[in-house]
Each structure stands twice: as C-alpha cells, then as structure tokens.
Amino acid sequence: MRSARVLLTAVVLAAALAPARPGLASPEDIFGYGSRSPGMGATGPASADGFEAAYANPALLAGLRDRKFTLGFQGASFHLTANGPGLPGLIPYDEAKGVTIGVALPIPFGGILKDRVGVGLAFYTPTAVLVRGDILYPETPQFSLLPDRAQLLAIVLGAGVDIGYGVRIGAGFSAVAQLEGSVVAATDATGHVGTRVEDQLIAVYAPIIGATYDLPVGKPHTWRVGATFRGTLAASFLVSLDGSKLTSLPIPILNIGGLAQYDPAQVAVEAAYDTKPLLVAVGATYKRWSQYPGPLEPTLTCPSTDASCSALSPASIGYHDTVAIHVGADHAIPVTRSLTAHVRAGYFLEPTPLPSTLPASTAYSSSTHAVVDLPTRYFDATRHAITAGGGLEISPVTVDLYGQLHLLQPRTETFTSGPVGEPGTSSQASVGGHVLVAGMLVGVKF
Amino acid sequence: MRASRLWLLGLSCCATLGGSGLGDVGLPTSGVGPFRELVASEVHDAPYVLDNEAPNYREPAVLPGNPGDASSAEVVLYAVAAEPAGATGSRDVIVRTHADDARSFYGTSLDTGHTPPVVLTASAAWEGASVGSPSAVQIGGQIFLYYAAKGGIGLARSPDGVTFAKEPAPVLAPDATVAWETTTPSAPSVAVYPDGQIRMLYAAGDSIGEAASDDGLTWHRLDADPTTPAIDPVLTPGPPAAPGTLEDGEPPPFDTGQVGDPCLAPRTTADGRIQVRVLYTGFIGTPGTTGRASAIGFAARYGDSGPLVRQSGPVFAPGHHEAAPALFEWSGNSMLYVQLDETSTTPPYSAIAAGFAPAQDTLAGPGAYPGGP
Amino acid sequence: MARSRCARGLTLAVLLLAGLGVARPASANPLDAFGFGSRGAAMGSAAAADVQDFSANYYNPAGLARARALEVSLGYFRADSYLYMNGQNNQVDPVHGLVGGLVAPGQLFGVPFAFGLGLHLPDQRLSRVRALPQDQPVWELYDNRNQRVYLAANLAVSPFKWLQIGGGLSFMAATAGSVDITGNVDVLKVESSEVRNQVSADLTAIRYPQVGARIAVNDRLAFALVYRGQFRLTLDLDATLAGDISLGAAGTPLTTALYTLQTDSVNAFLPQQVVVGSSWSPIDDLKVDLDLTWVNWSAYVAPVAQVSINLDIPPPQGGWPASISPPTTPVATAVIPIVMHDRVVPHVGAEWRAIVRPKYQGFLRAGYEFDQSPIAPQTGQTNYVDRDRHAFSAGVGVRLVKLTSVLPGDVRVDAHGQLSVLPTSLTLKSDPSDLVGDYTAGGHIWNVGGTVTVGF
Predict the structure, then answer these.
(1) Does domain B33-240+252-357 have CATH number 3.40.1280.10?
(2) Can you tell me the ipTM of this complex?
(3) Residue A399 pairs with which residues in a beta bridge?
C-alpha cells in the first residue's frame, strides 16, 4: 500500500512538473489511446478496457463495473529524414508531451438497466500547446501528416449500453476547437492605426458509434467482434486580414487559414479472443484519406463573377484511402492474491495516404515577376509500429506502461517543378525515420 | 474555406454555430465622426454627391428636407456654383438641390438633363459680383439663407427655400474695432440653440468668431474671453507641435495656419447641457499659401459662451483639399458634406463629396435621383 | 486510526491537487454573472458553504466530497441582455447553452473521495476574442467576457467528517500566431492578385488554480473558503506581407511592398477571487446562505490591441497615379489603461423545503447579490461602460425519490429565474470635443434556466 502511494506520488508530481514544451499531433489516431491499447498494437474495437473504450468503441463501456479515474503522461520524439537535392536530411520537430485524464463510470441504474450502462470520458491535452497549426509553404520540407497532428487537445466522451444477447452498442463524440475570425486594421483621420480583432473558438464534433457482439461459441472463453465508426474530425484556422482601410491602395482582404488538424472518417473492425488470462485482438481500420483536402487554403478566392481569375490555388495532392492493420495481445500473470501483472505486445501497420509523386505548387516570384512552379515537399511513409507494454494491478490502483517504436518504411518520392507552361523538371527524395513513444498511466478505482 | 471542402467535411462533422456577435449597435456618438468617404456601393460617383466640372460646386450648406421627421434622410443642399458672366468670365451664385437618401442629388453629373436651379445671385452694390458660403436655417416659418459677399455677410429669406428676398444691407459688416478680424467676415454658419438663442459663427482673418441675435436680422459680436479688453475669437489656429514630440509617421497638427468655414451644430447632451459642436476647415499654411493642405476638424464647448476646445486630429482628411463642412444628421447617422477636389481631370475641379459616420456602418445602395430640386 | 486516516487523506488531497496540471478549460465569467446550475442561480450564487452537486465544481470544489451517490446533471440556461446607451438597445449578445456535470463519490484508502465534472457549453462558440478601438463604447463586463466555455474537473476529499478540501487547475487557451504572405497585388483587379500565405499558430494553455475548503461547525452551521486564480486570454498575431504591386498584367510591377503588422491583445482577464461563505439552518426545513466574494479587479488589463505596423511602399518611377494617395506608415495608438477598483460582492440566498413527503419534496428558493461596478467613471477618451448590478433571483425545485426501479436513487428538477437590474445613470465627458460625448447607460438582464439531476 505504501509503495503504491509512493509510486502514485511520483507519477502525479512528474506529470505536474513536466516542462511545458510544445508537442505534436492528433495523438489517438497516431498512437492509440488509453492504458492498454497503445501497448497492444493500438487495438480496441473489440478489446478496449476502461476509459479508452470511449474512443476505441463506446459499446465496450457497457461492461464497466468499477468507477475509475486515470491520470497519465505520454511523450513522443520524432526522427524523420528526407534526403535529396536541396533537402536537409533530418527535419527537426518538437517532442510531443501530453497528459491524459480518463474517467470510467458505470451508471448504477436499477431494474432492467442494472449493470448495463457505462460512461467514459477521455481527455488528452498537450502540456503547453493545445492545438498547433503549422500550415507552411508547400516547398518547405515537412512531414505534414505526422508530427503536428500530435499537438491537439482532444476530448472524447461516450456511453455504452448492453442490450442483451451478447450485443452492446455505444455512441459518443470527439471534440476539438477551431479558430475563425477577422482582424481589421484601419487608419483614422489622424494617421493613427487601430485594429478591430474578433476571433472565435468554435467546437467541432465528430461522432463515434460502435457495436460489439460476443459470439455464442467457445464458452467459457469469449470471442468478440467489434466495429467502430468515427466521423471526420477537422480543426481549421481561418482569420481574414483586412488592411484595405490603411491606405488608398486597394489592398485585398487576405484569408489566412487552412486545416490545422485532420482525422479522416474511419471504420474499424476487430476480433478478439479472451481466454483470461490471455487476450488476443486482430483488426483493420479503413481511413478515408481521399476526402482530405490538404492543409492549405487559397489566400484570395476568385469572385463568383470570375471563377477563373488568376489567384493562386494550392496544389491538389490526391490523397488515397488506407487500411491499417492492428494486432495485439495481453497476458495477465497473477503474482499474489492482490497483485496481478500484465505483459502486452502488439504491432500495427499504418500505410501512408500520400502519393509518391506530388504535383507542383505555384507561387509568385519577385525576382522574375512571374508565377513559377515550386516542388511540393510533403513527406510521409508507411509506418510499422512495434508496441510493448506492461501493467500492475494492486487494487484499487493500476499502473500501466507502454512503448512504441514506429519505423518509417523507406520510400522514394518524386516532385515536379518548373516554369509555368513549360515542361517541368523533377527531383526525388528518400524518406525514412522513426518515432519513439512512451507513456505511463495510473488509475484508481473508487 | 472552399464550399466544396466545407461540404465534404460536413459529411461527418458538425460544429457549434460560431455566429457573429453584436453589442455595437446604437452606440452613443457626438455625431461628428470620424467620417469615412462614401464608397461605390453607396453613391453612384463615390465619394462625390454633387459633381459637374463647369459649375465647380463648392461650399455646401444643408437643411433637413423633412424637419418633422428625425428619421428621414431627405436633405436640401445649397452650394456655390460658377455661372458664366459675360466678359468677366464667371461669377459665383448659389444653387439649390435635394436628395431623398442624403446622397443622390438632383442635377449631379450622372443625373443627365438636370441642373440645380440658381436661387441667389449678387445684385446689390455692397455684394460685388459674387455671392458664396451659404448657410441655411429655419427660423419661424421661413428659411433664412445667410451668405458671404464683398461687403460682409448678408441675409435672404424665403417661405419655400426657392424664392428668396434679400435684406438691403449686410447683417454683419466689417468692424474696424475688432482687431482679430483682419479680413471681411465671411463663411457664416447660423443655428438656433435648443433654448431658442440664435447664434452665428463666421470666419475672418485666420480665426473664427461668434455673434448673437434675437431675431436673425440684428447681430452683435460676442467675446470668447471677457477677461481681456478686446473681443476674442472662439477658435484660432492650433499651436504647432513642439520639436521631437511627433512619433514616426505621425502627421503634424493640421490647423496651424488658419481655421475657417465653421459649421455650427448645437445639441443637447444626455444630461441636458448644451454642447456647441463646430466642424471647421483647418489649413496647414497661412492664408495665401498656394496649394496648402487642409482637413476637417472638430471643436466644441459646453454652454453658450466661451472658447471652443478642439479635437487634436481631424475628423475627415481624405487629402484632396477638403473644406467647407456641412453636417446632416438622421436616425443616429451623420453625413458630412465638403468641397473636395475632383481629381479625374487635370487640373482638378471642385465638387461636393460626402463622408459618413459611424464609419463602421455601411449604407444601403443609393436611391433614384429626385424628379426636381 | 483517525490520525493515520487524516494523514492519508491530506496527503492524497495534496498529491491529487498537485497532479492536476492538466488542461481543463474553465472560465468563471458567465458563471460569475449568471450562476451555475439552477439551485445556485436561484440562491443568488450564495453556495460556497452549502453546495454538494455538480455546481460545486465552480462554487466550491470541496463540496464534491459531501455527495453520497453518483449524480449526473444536465440543464440549460439563457440570459438575454437589454442594455441601453442613450436609450438605444446595444444588442449585447445573449448567453445561452448547456450546463451539466457529474459527481462521482467513493472511497480511496478509506477516505471519502469524489471526482466532479462541470460544464457550460455555449451554443454558439467556445470563446470569442474581441479587441476593439479603445474609444468605442462597450459594455465591458457583459459584451464579450461571458462568451466562453467552462469545463472543470475537480477532486475532493473529506479527511474528517467536518472538513472537506477540494480543488483543481483550470485553464483557458491563448492564441499566438505568425503569418507570412508573399506575392503580387494587382491594384486594378485585386481579386486576381497572386498571393499565398503560410501560418504557424498555437493555442497555448493557461493554467490557474481553484481550491476550496468547507468546515462544518455542527449540523446546522458551516463555513467555506474558496480561492479562484487569475487568468488572461491573449491573442498575439504577427503578419508580414512582402511582394510586388502591379497595374494589371504580371511582369509590369509598379513598385514593391512590405507590410508588417503586429497586434497583441489581452482580451479576457479573469481577476482572482476569494470567497468566504456561510450556511445556516435555523430550522430543519430552512437554509440561509451568505457569501462575500472579494474580486481583484484592480489587476484588470485593458482589452485593447497594441498594434505596430510598418508600411514600406517606395514611390514608383514616374510617381503615383493621380487616383492613389501615397501611403504612409500608420502610427500606433497609445493604449490608455483602464482603471478598476477591487470589490466585495455580497451574495444572499435562502432555501425552504416547503413540501416534505416520503416520495417527493418541494423547494422554494430566493437570492440576491449586489455587484458594485468596479470601473472608474469614464470621463476621458475611453468608454468601458458598466453600472452597478442588483440581481434578484428565485427558483423552485422538486425531488422525487425512487421514481422507478430503473432509477433507484432520486431525481431532482430545478428551475430558476434571475433579473439583473443595472440602474441607468450618466457618463459625463470632461472634454467637450470628445467624439462620443455624454451618454446614459443602463438596462436589465433576464436569466432563466432549468436543471435535471439524476442520483443513483
């Protein structure tokens, strides 16, 4: 008991005192979410336990029996490289650090609803930056789909109901904030400038709907299948900059914006086999990346009366849908009557939606006074993630640890560029690298 | 965001509404700006409301077209126009026009086939060849039209604002005992205070003075500072900026050379005290300086006597020799009429332009030109 | 045994408070004005020593530890402002949205412990930043400060029967960003300008503490002490535009342009507060609460953007076209500080259990609070409009016990109505040439809402 309290102390103080340095991305979509899932190959639709089911499959919340509060800390470091003409090799990115709070609550209805309803809340926040939107010029070398998507404050809330006959259903939502507004700078008659700034944070929601079915075979062991649908979660940044009243020169109203964060709509299916003490899960997730419009928005839009005006438009990338594969296992090892250890391992394959040949982007060149082509230097690669984890259960406290090693499968990307209207030139880049993730969560049943 | 992208995201996303906010409706204002020029969506030949090269319209004065309705945008405008006059070339006369929406005036250049009629010309010996600087005010059941001429400030009265009968002599003539009036009084602006007093502001030399009357016919000068033996003006040119006090890019004070063309607009404030509001033309450079810059300034006082306190900066300064302000207020809006260089020709000619306040609001599209003046 | 339990309880409280360095967006602005939950709102927000439902997340986190069963609450309120200047309705935005939360009590190492979650989710936006010209009249404490989400998760323990301690760290998000714009602006056809941008924007977390304690002298009398920390919501934006200005076709630039804009503003500032509360039951069915809240308004920061602009557009060869005035670099406006004074806000509330039956109970509630305006008279150039506020509130509640077999606990339905009166008074300007001039200001605010709580 005393050692547990000391451990608890260390964890919460470490979490509270961690230096607040910016971190990255939509973490649940990249690394998984919760105490157990990240160590089990980011599985979950049929195997999630506790608050993580709010994201993995809300239907599994119906199986909650204990109230539990979880506090965790997670960090990720990125070592991403792009080698080729004019490329830097290692592209530096800030580490991602964040804190997770999870709450699992069985709802103690009586009568026909007794032991059938549960609610879960999952809450991840980066330690300093809640949302980062880096929407850079396309010729700037960048891994646009990975590191910055880890800088996101995400709230997930779900509820599940056991409707009997082995069927559970659940629903919930993810929420993220997006920014929109305007900045109007104007000069008054005295020449003094003032601004009128009006910006709003707006909540954006994406639904999560799930269901599971316990197959009536293989008793006393459990075969379970689960499916989860998660809607598109997109956080945009759109601020209009109006300097037209600063001078008699007709300065256009500039739209500063883009998609700061994006998780595609996805459907995850999984089968899990639970023999207690061994749990094995295998699943696949279809992600609809083809609907991703890319991070950039045009700074000026053509008016409806002149749809073909010469205002610059971002390149159309052509992302394609992907199917990720997840495999994981958890083995419970009773140590004493009150202490149980868990060993976990897993693997997942995350294909890249980025095509290997990217079209050129256009920009105005002040040196040639003309519109020119520039290479679109977006990098990404298929990731092979090996996961491992462990846990200790000393009632009422649980401690879980996990680590992930993401290996980017080396690939070659081709970029086209050249003067507008002339045959373009092309160059290539070799992309690779790895990502290290680690986390620890402490839960308390109460 | 592109509409197509918004629609695609909307398939699986939803969001709070994020509607635009209010809280800036019906805000209090002194009604004197700062003004912004009318834009193309608000007037046909932005920012000009009365514009024609030959007449060279100047020195506007306004009257509410519908005095009993404070929400009406109907306005009557008097202006100075150049009229061909035989061997002498031209002379200045006073014309009348009106608009139903405060900006689409009968007889402007785009209102083809129409010309604002002449309502006043010089005919008496004391007037010389021209009349100018009209100021119109309703006293009793009559329109009192004050104007400047060679020998001082005159008065013409009319029951309908079209046909006027002039007084035989100036109502405010030069007074050699008033030391600050180094030129003949001109640019009159007359208003009736809320308590019934009739007051006039006028320009002379490089300053602005004040006179009072009980009937609008007989005037006596007022002293802005009774503590001194001489009669003092209510507004003098502003002091120049002390060396080193201007920030980078900050323009110097705009009215250090001369103040003139007063527009008197008294009102009662929320606490019942009289606020004497005055719009005026401020010049950088003394009278006689060629091409000197000007801007429209604002000065005021509480109470019916004493000097005016000026705003540090102009309330309207498009930078095209704006001058001779006239103010029209309706429904919480203010329209400022000025003479402004029309720069589409070389050399530019003068036209009547308009500025609007509150500057963050936008007027609806312009109405049709009226059928008559 | 009691001593070791005390030590475990206090240690746990400290550790949990220290560990809650998490981003929980919270803003007490709408709750300061309109209350949280129908019971607290009906009782004039005099609840620090009396609260034990989800609204304890705001009024006093220590109250969470008094809950006896899991409770889930959901409600809605709407506050419509009718605020006038010079008799004109300024159409200040209404505040409306969901309120709700839960309290989950339990035991941890033998010590009563509770977790609580409270939420106010506005219908229209999570927050709004508005930085206006400093001379523009604005209802400073009602125009924008109430447009904010509130989300709090707190922990509480009760190491002794007479003592509860609770708290958490709340946060809001500040925005900082830089924008870089390059290209060619065609002054003859601006919509065809070849311009593009890149942006780097962060919403950064701001944390501030909220802690509370409650001491029960006996079954009828209790005192409370609550501290709410200070936060400021900022928006910092840097923008740089560099490129060509042309007349028509690309390849014939008129001149170059460099336009840099830096704007820094503190839009929302929540001053720190200390609440001393008391709750007394002179008879079994009557409860009278009195709270005094000290608000540190003197630390308030003016919500005016500090602007720095550089506009460098060299004159073209051959001079500017006649229709274009040569641009000059605008001068940044000097920000005039807002002068505010600390205030002590009294809250009084009463609750009478009017109906007592085995299966149901009925409650009548009333309250009053007085907010003296903290803003100094606006006789100068600024116009931060505010007036004293008298808030009269009333409400009803019903508690149903064991409504059905599915709901073994109780169900409470509460409703409230609150009328805030801001007596009209004059603002007199000392400078007759002030462009706003004298004005009257005043009005009233209606706040109505309801909350349903299910206890298990």
Answers:
(1) no
(2) 0.87
(3) A392, A442
